[in-house]
Amino acid sequence: MDTQPGLLRCYRHPEAETGIRCARCERPICTQCMISASVGFQCPECVRGGSGTGHAPDANQPRTLAGGRVASDERLVTKILIAINLALFIAVQVVGDRLVDDLALIGGAYLPTGELVGVSDGEWYRLLTSAFLHQEIPHFLFNMMGLWVIGGIVEPELGRIRYAALCLLAGLSGSALAYLLSPQNQFSLGASGIVYGLIGAWAVLARRRRQDMRPVALFVALSLLFTFTRPGISWEAHVGGLVAGALVAYAMVHAPRARRDLVQYGACGLVLLIDLGIVLARSAALT
To answer: What domains can you pick out in the chain, each with its CATH number?
Structure first.
């Protein structure tokens, strides 16, 4: 019998060729072994969730594509992020512009006296607080919808810890680029950096899953078109978040299994160092 080059063989039935992998552990599985799951197909071991014998307790635990634990609530971190944004949005409505002045990111901010304020004056917290801050209802609703929809796709694929790290780095990277490139005294706020980071991660995941990339590419193109054609939008935060999200997601889902943690943590650390370098360089230029 002729065989097709490039096809894998089922780990339980070596005589059976297959092009299907378990969505959790990535072992090749044939049609007899694959079990339908909420995301693709899983092998019997992952479905059993470690109930077999002769292995360490976590050896057969279901894992995400990036190696994280599969959680019962696949949107828990997304819900927490939305709750933080909602709490700050309500606080802004109650307190007013004073809270926005205290938490928003300001590009190259100078007082009329020439005194520096903001990140360049040591208020580094603005790099993160600005990524959860909203002032207008349409802006808040648009970002929360994006966080809920796209986050609901990305979080189950990465797992909670990796997903939270990606979101924070995307928000921080968007703020760092906005701090570097924004005009003097321009305010920047909103979760757009995080949302665009998730868009970048979604594109990487779709490519990794060998899905049809045309809808994803169209969505990314329309998102960038929206970014650069609408006035008053911080394109720097969008682009910074998009690039960081794509880079971190790529490292997470393509890391070799034997060195997965090292590659994933190293990639996150590298992005963090780049952000730190950008902020330090900009602050030095201003002072």
So the answer is: 1-54 (no CATH), 76-274 (1.20.1540.10)
